[in-house]
Task: structure prediction
Amino acid sequence: YSGCSGPDPNHRYAITKHYMSRLTFILVAIILLAIYVSFYVVITVGILIITLPLAALLGKRFGIYRGQIQAQGDKRLKLTNELLQGIRIVKYYAWEQAFQANIESYRDKELGRVKALSMDRSTLIFMMQNATTVALGVTLVSSSVVYWVLMQRRY
Result:
């Protein structure tokens, strides 16, 4: 796959083939899971299907947060440059505290967005790393509960 870059006309075919092989692998895994675990595969596939749109939503929010962080940083940098260019006037009128408070408010807003981005990023990493484990756990627990209920009815 790494050799499929550049103006090669088969590049698009190679990318499609790569993703189709992954899709085929996933479908075969789901079919085998359905054979061995029966209808509980619906729970597993459902959990995995739910995580994909959540990951897409978080990815979209990453872009929004990055834009907001950049805008806040630009405002703060502009204000800092104004302060440095007009330092004589600021000192003459004793506006240091006002400028400092204004710069700190922009910095606090910027850091708030950075924290939100970090929380979303950690949520996405946790979700993607543990989605299969949670799906497997829910499948095993639900199959055990159903088996236990059926065994209780039998005796």
